[in-house]
From TrEMBL:
Superkingdom of the organism of origin: Eukaryota
Name listed for the protein in its UniProt record: Ribonuclease P/MRP protein subunit POP5
Family: Belongs to the eukaryotic/archaeal RNase P protein component 2 family.
Main location: nucleus
Assembly and binders: Component of nuclear RNase P and RNase MRP ribonucleoproteins. RNase P consists of a catalytic RNA moiety and 10 different protein chains; POP1, POP4, POP5, POP7, RPP14, RPP21, RPP25, RPP30, RPP38 and RPP40. Within the RNase P complex, POP1, POP7 and RPP25 form the 'finger' subcomplex, POP5, RPP14, RPP40 and homodimeric RPP30 form the 'palm' subcomplex, and RPP21, POP4 and RPP38 form the 'wrist' subcomplex. All subunits of the RNase P complex interact with the catalytic RNA. Several subunits of RNase P are also part of the RNase MRP complex.
Species in which this protein is naturally found: Castor canadensis (American beaver)
GO cellular component, one term: multimeric ribonuclease P complex
Keyword tags: Nucleus, rRNA processing, tRNA processing
Function in brief: Component of ribonuclease P, a protein complex that generates mature tRNA molecules by cleaving their 5'-ends. Also a component of the MRP ribonuclease complex, which cleaves pre-rRNA sequences.
GO biological process, one term: rRNA processing
Subcellular location: Nucleus, Nucleolus
InterPro entries: Pop5/Rpp14/Rnp2-like, RNase_P/MRP_POP5, Rnp2-like_sf
Molecular function in Gene Ontology: ribonuclease P RNA binding
Length: 172
């Protein structure tokens, strides 16, 4: 038998979460390549404890996770409970370095988006990457550099040759 909607809310509580889409910015390229999700999660937890004390550490420890980490682009997706996402968000500017394997790399977090689902963060990231690509193409110094970027993007995005040519024309 189906459970009435009102009773379903009692028995199956929804877990409200927030996802913080961040970019790890560092001048040292080794910084991003040396990170892993456990080290990053520990660093964020330690920073929350340092900034917000034991209450902040306890409140954010439940449900906190590093859901996605791309070492090449520096994109990080953090998950936390909806009630306490502002504690996590406000602690991120206090991260000024990343320590891993005995090395300290200066860095900072740039929060790009706060969303209710992973899907909304993915949609935002696609739009963000498109804007960044347009800026990159506008800042090209010569036509050869521009063509190399267009070729690399179309090759990585499209499988068949016709779609790649159409996309290259659309980027121009």
């Amino acid at each position: 038998p189906a459970v009435p909607t009102a009773l379903a809310c009692i028995y199956l509580p929804a877990t409200c979460r927030r996802y913080l889409l961040c970019e790890l910015v560092s001048d040292d390229p080794r910084c991003r390549l040396s990170i892993d999700d456990r080290v990053l999660g520990g660093l964020v937890r330690d920073t929350i404890a340092r900034v917000h004390g034991t209450f902040g550490a306890a409140a954010c420890s439940i449900g906190f996770a590093v859901r996605y980490l791309n070492a090449y682009t520096g994109i990080v997706l953090l998950r936390c409970r909806k009630e306490f996402y502002q504690l996590v968000w406000s602690a991120l500017p206090f991260i000024t370095y990343l320590e891993n394997k005995g090395y300290r790399y200066p860095c900072f977090f740039n929060t790009l988006h706060v969303g209710g689902t992973i899907r909304t963060c993915q949609k935002f990231l696609i739009q963000y990457n498109r804007r960044q690509l347009l800026i990159l193409l506008q800042n090209c110094t010569d036509e050869g550099e521009r063509e190399a970027i267009q070729k690399a993007v179309t090759k990585s995005c499209f499988l068949d040759e016709e779609s790649g040519e159409e996309a290259a024309e659309a980027l121009e």
